[in-house]
Design goal:
Layout lengths: L4 H22 L3 H12 L16 H19 L5 H28 L5 H10 L5 H11 L3 H29 L6 H31 L6 H22 L4 H15 L1 H27 L4 H4 L3 H22 L8 H9 L5 H16 L5 H30 L9 H15 L4 H10 L1
Length: 429
């Protein structure tokens, strides 16, 4: 049993890096391996890593590292065409309404959660994490348009889902009087977080513009300092508002500093990948079979129906968008894995419910982690195959070495008997 915090972090880093190594050589989805190794070393397996031993310091650290992943996504967000913007907006709005209602209804009817906690689950399940989607779409080489839609959906809905879930939890605990109060605070925290993020992003642009071109290290340090202060300060003023602030700051920097943002992309991307590598196994290690088994087949049925229900949501969201063919809608319907923010929010809420003496916190956490396990596992393995069958994978351009080799082969053939015919045909072309 591991109780030393240094050993816990060391085991988490090693598990994550081992999963990435296996993924590189085997071609298996990295997110699936990260989840599997986290389960293996955690409570569901060898019980070597116990995240709860890290205490209250784990939650803010997870929040800061997740904000780094969200900032990285905002930095790369480029929805250039109006059609692409319309697709993302419709998908987010339709899923925000239908996904919340459908998720709550399925959790109540199939998993047996009471309505107050069922609404909380519906909000948590809205988040499709960039921490999972980004590695998945890159590994399967999904077409850029669809990849951008999926990543943008996660970047927008993950912060919104975290804020909404917290407000619905407060409603369930009696801290908020009614749904209008929830709607008012949702707009305030999302809008306030986005505004603070835009201001911080603008300030960061002014600072970065004045740095010499060879100041990559200082540029990275400045970005991290401003980002983490922004997220921590926003969280104090507007609980859960730090996530939309991180996304908006990344968007502003990416749009205002296209050349320097490109230079930052690789540095921030590597740090974001490091955050994913350590956090995913660490949070997966917190899952125990004891939290999943009481849900029974009702919990499994709830998650599977939720995954299939997304097809209906995407059909409604795609109405009037001519650029979305049936293949695109089918792919969008299937890829909706949940990630780190979902796991972190569920763990936190379970503790708050237990502290308030409200039953059902364990069932809520178990259902959320079951959603993560099934969505990451099933979609992580099947999505690359589906993308190949539907013809939605980018064709790799031939490398310069391959082109040089082909040119050399042609020259060699021209020197062989009959090669003058090849040369003549080439000249005729």
């Amino acid at each position: 049993m591991t109780t030393n915090s240094e050993l816990i972090w060391g085991a988490s880093f090693f598990s994550g890096s081992l999963a990435q190594l296996i993924a590189r050589f085997s071609g298996l989805p990295s997110v699936v391996l990260l989840l599997a190794l986290g389960l293996f070393v955690g409570q569901a397996g060898l019980d070597l890593v116990q995240p709860e031993a890290l205490g209250q310091g784990l939650e803010p650290l997870v929040g800061l590292l997740v904000s780094l992943v969200l900032f990285d996504g905002g930095l790369k967000l480029r929805l250039a065409s109006r059609e692409l913007q319309r697709t993302v907006i419709q998908l987010v709005l339709v899923r925000g309404v239908l996904g919340l209602v459908g998720g709550a209804a399925l959790a109540h009817e199939l998993a047996g959660l009471g309505w107050p906690l069922a609404w909380v689950f519906g909000a948590i399940a809205l988040a499709t994490g960039p921490t999972v989607i980004s590695p998945m779409v890159r590994q399967m080489r999904l077409l850029p348009g669809l990849a951008q839609v999926l990543e943008a959906e996660g970047l927008i809905l993950e912060p919104a889902a975290a804020v909404l879930a917290l407000l619905l939890l407060q409603l369930a605990l009696g801290a908020l009087p009614d749904w209008p109060a929830v709607a008012e605070l949702l707009v305030l925290r999302l809008g306030g977080g986005a505004l603070l993020g835009a201001l911080a992003g603008g300030l960061l642009v002014l600072l970065l513009e004045r740095l010499p071109a060879d100041s990559d290290g200082l540029r990275l340090q400045l970005v991290l300092g401003v980002l983490f202060l922004l997220v921590a300060g926003t969280q104090m003023l507007l609980p859960e508002g730090g996530f939309p602030a991180a996304v908006m700051a990344g968007v502003v920097v990416g749009l205002r500093l296209e050349q320097q943002a490109t230079q930052l992309d690789e540095l921030i991307f590597q740090l974001a990948q490091l955050a994913i590598t350590v956090l995913f196994p660490l949070l997966a290690a917190d899952v125990s079979w004891g939290e999943l088994s009481p849900l029974g087949w009702g919990g499994v049925a709830c998650v599977l129906c939720l995954m299939l229900y997304r097809w209906l949501v995407v059909q409604v969201a795609g109405l009037g968008i001519a650029s979305l063919a049936w293949r695109d809608k089918l792919m969008l319907s299937w890829v909706a894995p949940r990630g780190i923010v979902t796991a972190a929010v569920a763990s936190l809420f379970a503790l708050q419910l237990d502290a308030a003496g409200v039953s059902g916190g364990g069932s809520l956490k178990g259902l959320v982690f079951l959603t993560i396990l099934l969505s990451v596992g099933l979609q992580g393995f099947s999505a690359p195959w589906l993308a190949q069958r539907l013809g939605l994978v980018q064709v790799e351009a031939p490398s310069e070495a391959a082109l040089d080799a082909a040119a050399g082969l042609t020259a060699g053939l021209e020197q062989q008997p009959g090669g003058e015919q090849i040369g003549a045909l080439k000249a005729a072309e």
